[in-house]
Design goal:
Blueprint: E1 2-5, H1 7-13, H2 16-22, E2 29-31, E3 34-37, E4 49-52, E5 57-60, E6 71-72, H3 74-81, H4 87-98, E7 104-108, H5 110-115, E8 123-130, H6 136-144, H7 148-151, E9 156-163, E10 169-178, E11 184-187, E12 192-195, E13 201-203, E14 209-213, H8 216-225, E15 232-235, H9 242-249, E16 254-258, H10 263-275, E17 279-281, H11 292-315, H12 317-322
Parallel strand pairs: 14-15, 14-16, 16-17
Antiparallel strand pairs: 1-7, 2-3, 3-4, 4-5, 5-6, 8-9, 9-10, 10-11, 11-12, 13-15
Helix pairs in contact: 3-4
Length: 323
């Protein structure tokens, strides 16, 4: 037996929409009483996490994040968002961020707790972290993205395991970097996600100028071209962090935005510029490409073709002419 907050009262008093607002998230669209958010539980570019505040439920159409939870009540959302925090800690956080008064219960049995958490949640564990260089697959992937030369010190080799719903332990590795909410953003050739819940990543530099990037690889692409730029850097890691980013950016004198050339990225840029007149859209530097990294990779491929042609011309000048 243990002491808990009154779960039923939390469900009755806490509006999931209000909780999300207090956490810094804003719906991308509203349709028929359903509010669609960019999922803050995983990486995505199209708003697919749906909240029906009248019914007090949510559903992530794009799939579950690392917690394995993709739908439920405000309690289930808390378990997914603050995963892997324990049940009592999650209840405390919901009450704190929702800013409501909840009567505590003297005790609650373990069987009652299980009823509030019907989904078996997979567990993950970061087994070790290493400096870049020991894993050829990770190094090769970063080189293929054109950022290998600047990755050290910004990215790490993350080795982690996940226990799935069938209690099968699966081991993975990826490049990774920390966010400010204690999570690790991880990426390799086949997977892009987050261990823990989402958060921004901030690199302190100039107190007056801030460069804001949608993704970390875009930041590193910019760093390739601007190795000595002293600006502070803020990486959203997900457009669901837009409100948080705007609040942080307001402290600077000049804000440069480098978001994707897609519908969501353009909308985020317009909102940012509209709300903060100190900000400016700098995505013109990769005009014709979806994002900064795509431009960098395209340039790398072009350079490789030229070098291949030059090497071929040494053996047979006619090949260079044909190319």
């Amino acid at each position: 037996m243990a002491s808990f907050l009154n779960v039923n009262e939390i469900k009755e008093k806490v509006s999931l929409l209000d909780l999300l607002k207090n956490l810094g998230f804003t719906p991308q669209k509203v349709s028929g009483g359903e509010h669609f958010f960019l999922s803050m539980l995983r990486e995505e570019y199209t708003a697919s996490l749906c909240v029906n505040d009248k019914l007090g439920v949510w559903f992530d159409h794009g799939g579950a994040g690392v917690s394995g939870i993709r739908s439920g009540t405000v309690i289930d959302f808390g378990l997914a968002y603050w995963y892997p925090s324990g049940f009592p800690e999650v209840l405390q956080k919901i009450v704190m961020y929702a800013n409501v008064s909840i009567d505590p219960l003297e005790s609650i049995s373990s069987s009652e707790v299980k009823k509030e958490r019907p989904i078996q949640v997979p567990r993950y564990e970061i087994e070790r972290m290493e400096e870049l260089g020991s894993n050829a697959a990770i190094t090769g992937y970063l080189d293929s993205r054109g950022i290998g030369s600047v990755a050290k010190g910004h990215l790490y080799e993350i080795y982690y395991s996940v226990l799935d719903n069938r209690d099968k332990l699966r081991r993975y590795f990826a490049s990774g970097w920390p966010n400010e909410n204690g999570g690790w953003e991880v990426r390799n050739k086949y997977f892009k996600g987050c261990l823990g819940h989402k958060g921004v990543s901030f690199l302190e530099g100039s107190a007056k100028r801030l460069c804001v990037f949608e993704g970390y690889f875009d930041f590193l692409s910019w760093r390739v071209e601007h190795p000595k730029d002293p600006a502070s850097v803020l990486v959203l890691n997900s457009l669901s962090m837009l409100q948080t980013a705007k609040a942080r950016a307001a402290k600077f004198d000049v804000v440069e935005l480098y978001f994707d050339h897609d519908r969501s990225g353009r909308a985020a840029t317009e909102e940012f510029v509209s709300d903060l007149d100190i900000s400016m859209d700098c995505s013109w530097v990769y005009a014709g490409f979806k994002d900064y990294n795509e431009k960098l990779v395209a340039g790398l491929r072009s350079q490789n073709k030229i070098e291949s042609a030059l090497r071929a011309s040494k053996d047979d000048p006619r090949l260079a002419l044909e190319r």
